[in-house]
Design brief:
With 110 residues, the chain is mainly alpha-helical. The chain is built from five helices and two strands, in the order αββαααα. It is 53% helix and 4% strand.
Length: 110
């Protein structure tokens, strides 16, 4: 971990060589340690790590969160009305009417 905290991660994109914060090049052994660092170790050292799985997981969690919230909001929508702007109330009513009109055609998934 000490090596990670002494790593200059702002290297040119076309460079595979890491340097210490004072500019010294890493030895081959130090290069191997950095290349073998886990995502968790890099993040602990404050390095931004692009993790494509995190985006997929976040999207799935967002969908589940919306489903969970809707389960309670639909049955208790009157609680939300005091927090809505006038425009949002009009839009809510408009959308609720559209949903009610086509409710018998909505897919029922459980």
């Amino acid at each position: 971990m000490a090596l990670l905290f002494d790593t200059d991660f702002n290297r040119p994109e076309d460079s595979l060589v890491y340097r210490h914060l004072d500019g010294r090049l890493f030895t081959e052994e130090e290069q191997a340690i950095i290349r073998d660092a886990t995502i968790e170790e890099l993040q602990a050292a404050g390095v931004y790590v692009h993790n494509p799985e995190a985006g997929t997981e976040a999207a799935a969690a967002a969908r589940k969160l919306v489903e969970l919230l809707l389960r309670y909001v639909v049955s208790h929508s009157e609680v939300l009305i005091p927090f809505m702007t006038h425009e949002d109330m009009l839009e809510y009513d408009r959308l609720a009417n559209i949903v009610a009109a086509g409710a018998d055609r909505l897919p029922h998934g459980d």
